[in-house]
């Protein structure tokens, strides 16, 4: 899993958790330890506007 420095909106604990839990056999995290720490601390949850509900109702 590559974790480059990015906008705080993208560096969330939820995203890190998703990456970790999708690993089947092995997980290698590539990035700065500071970035991982920031993601763990960032519990901000943003509402996603994917349009999925609209597309499914069509």
Describe the structure.
- The chain has about 60 residues and is mainly alpha-helical.
- The protein has one domain (about 1-55).
- The chain is about 45% helix and about 5% strand.
- It has three helices and two strands, in the order βαβαα.
- Strands 1-2 form a two-stranded parallel ribbon.
- Helix 1 (about 15-20) crosses helix 2.
- The longest helix is centred in the N-terminal third of the chain and has 10 residues, at about 15-20.
- The protein is extended.
- About 5% of the residues are buried.
Helix segment tally? 3
What letter string, H or E per element, gives the SSE order? Answer: EHEHH
Total discrete domains: 1
Class from secondary-structure proportions: mainly alpha
Quote the beta fraction.
Answer: 5-15%
Largest sheet features: 2 strands, parallel
* Major beta sheet, strand line-up: 1-2
Shape: extended
List segments where confidence is low: pLDDT < 50 over at least 5 consecutive residues: none
Q: How many E-type strands?
A: 2
Distance linking N and C termini: 35 Å
- Averaged pLDDT, please? 88
Spatial extent as radius of gyration: 14 Å
Helix fraction, binned, reads: 40-55%
Q: What is shown here, in short?
A:
The protein has 58 residues and is mostly helical. It has 3 helices and 2 strands, in the order βαβαα.
């Amino acid at each position: 899993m590559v974790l480059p420095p990015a906008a705080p909106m993208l560096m969330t604990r939820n995203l890190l958790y998703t990456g970790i839990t999708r690993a089947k056999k092995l997980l290698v995290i590539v990035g700065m330890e500071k970035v991982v720490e920031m993601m763990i601390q960032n519990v901000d949850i943003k509402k996603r506007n994917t349009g999925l509900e609209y597309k499914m109702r069509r």
